[in-house]
Specification:
- The chain is built from five helices and eleven strands.
- The strands form three sheets. The chain has a seven-stranded antiparallel beta sheet, covered by helices on one side. Strands 1-4 form a two-stranded antiparallel ribbon. Strands 2-3 form a two-stranded antiparallel ribbon.
- Strand 7 and strand 8 form a beta hairpin.
- Helix 1 runs parallel beside helix 4.
- It is elongated, with a radius of gyration of 20 Å.
Length: 211
């Protein structure tokens, strides 16, 4: 794969336009870089190569902002196959009790990329409330893999009985599993877990910018 093709693939995986990326590159480079110049570069024109370092730095920054480490961690996919469905918290709780895949046709919104390594049942949720502020802010979108094993320190989606699922950090102290609110000012900082609690999935990233 050429650098030109790599830039196009990474931009499309992020779900951003040529205009948006060109604006970000111009700001970083402190000199004009047009949408037309980026379009030509993606098609193989080398005239924009002097901006390559700024393009790559900008792409990396945007990937980090949505939880992607490098270009090899993401691959674009067709809607309803490669994209990740954004589901409701009620649906997330239901997934705790079934091994069936969430059917993409049941979702109205999708995250337009899929991190490499994400399981086939990976789904996304809109963050609600401020219990995990500032780590996760209301309105952001978290990516959740229900097939990954949860380890202490990771953020998980958990559910107790018929209650709605919740996003918290999994903690293990003094032989006891707990759910911790990241926000130090949250009234109920810790929730003790017992056999009635179930882990619905592990948070593997967030995509708050380009939905």
């Amino acid at each position: 794969m050429t650098r030109n093709q790599e830039v196009k693939q990474r931009r499309e995986a992020l779900g951003i336009s040529q205009k948006k990326l060109a604006e970000e590159v111009s700001e970083r480079a402190k000199q004009p870089f047009s949408q037309q110049a980026l379009g030509k570069f993606e098609k193989g024109d080398s005239s924009g190569s002097k901006f390559l370092v700024y393009i790559l730095e900008t792409l990396e920054e945007l990937e980090l902002a949505v939880g992607l480490q490098t270009s090899k961690d993401v691959s674009p996919g067709p809607r309803s196959m490669g994209d990740i469905p954004i589901i409701s918290w009620i649906q997330a709780g239901d997934l705790c009790e079934t091994i069936d895949n969430f059917h993409p046709g049941d979702a109205e919104h999708f995250v337009p990329f899929r991190p490499r390594g994400a399981g086939p049942r990976t789904f996304a949720l809109w963050v609600r409330g401020k219990s995990n502020f500032p780590k996760f802010q209301e309105g952001e979108v978290v990516l959740v893999d229900p097939d990954k094993d949860a380890d202490p320190g990771q953020f998980v989606i958990a559910k107790k009985g018929l209650e709605e699922a919740t996003l918290k950090q999994l903690i293990f102290e003094d032989g006891q599993y707990m759910l911790k609110a990241y926000n130090p000012d949250w009234p109920q900082q810790y929730i003790m877990m017992d056999e009635s609690w179930h882990i619905c999935g592990v948070v593997i990233g967030k995509a708050e910018m380009f939905i």
